[in-house]
Specification:
Length: 147
Amino acid sequence: MPGVYPDAGAISPEDREALDALERALQGQRQRDHITLRVRGQSVRLHKRAVDLVSQALRELTEPRGAFSPQEAADRLNVSRTYLLKLLDDGILPFSRTEGGHRRIHRQDFEEYAARMAEQQSAGLDAMRAIGEEAGLYVRELEEARK
């Protein structure tokens, strides 16, 4: 069941990348009635149903609970879907793809990005306020508002 994986947050980015690579390799072999995997010199023969189950398990491990669609993430960030897709395409916000090719933003990646943006916005506002105070604009506006 996509989107309900209790331990997905414990997977390191390196392990997630390796699992994604294994999933891509398995996807290319789905039309066969079986495949043979070699692990530490031992061969394991997996029939099509087992390959499908392994692929499903890999997806469940790498898609944390609460992964967002691009539209859901855009709505939460209060940006357009087009802008969010640019963030994904430029590698600024990590994502993965579902079996059907749809993009999903993992909750942890989303929360980290949102926190970085909030920090940058706060720093920008502080800088603007300092410039205004330095120019005497901030104080003048307060004095005028009090009259």
